[in-house]
Amino acid sequence: MPRVAVVTGAASGIGAAIVAALHESGWTVAGLDLQPSPGVDLGLACDVSDADAVAAAVGRIAAELGPVETLVSAAGHYEYCPVANITDERWNRMLSVHLGGLVNTVRAVLPGMLDRGDGAVVAIASELAIGGTDSEAHYSAAKGAMLGFVRSLGAEVADAGVRVNAVAPGPTDTPLLPAPQRTPEYLAALPARRLGRPDEIAQAVRFLVDEGGFCCGEVLSPNMGAVI
């Protein structure tokens, strides 16, 4: 029987790199994204903020590929916005994609993991959940809430054989990265003097999935030294 992983935000950037890394480890990978996800074994169009749509998608994945043993929640939404301009709509959308997307997918896959006594969940957070910056308050808040959820759920289900952890990347060369974080001045301020690569973040995820059996509620932060 194949080992089945679900990756949200699988169409591009870090999510697509995670798909490739899990494939290299022999996983069968289903991708959830608003856009088509190349390279997956089963790709489904899904808004992760819609709990019913997520449940239906996970049900189809289990029927077509097999029980879901790993979930990687990488779906993202980003905008640069001073706090005075954060409307209710902007606030709710940011939280519903990041925190809501994680919660919705966990709700869909966790019962099966608990029944089998085995499973892994990895949430893709951000170094801004650890050290915030200006004009990204709603993004930082959403990512920070993900870490609280991961730590609490990790403690709750560890003795049932389910491992819940997070990766909090720093500035990574993806389409979501804003232009100010690509300038020579910004890169010179990073201890590593460069952006991270999606494949590097994917290696941290693969470690937690394939080797990190001793990790529970942990946060790995490959962030180019942006937060030390």
UniProtKB/TrEMBL annotation:
InterPro entries linked to this entry: NAD(P)-bd_dom_sf, Sc_DH/Rdtase_CS, SDR_fam
Domain of life: Bacteria
Family matches, as PROSITE patterns: ADH_SHORT
Protein family membership: Belongs to the short-chain dehydrogenases/reductases (SDR) family.
The protein's name: SDR family oxidoreductase
Organism annotation: Tsukamurella soli
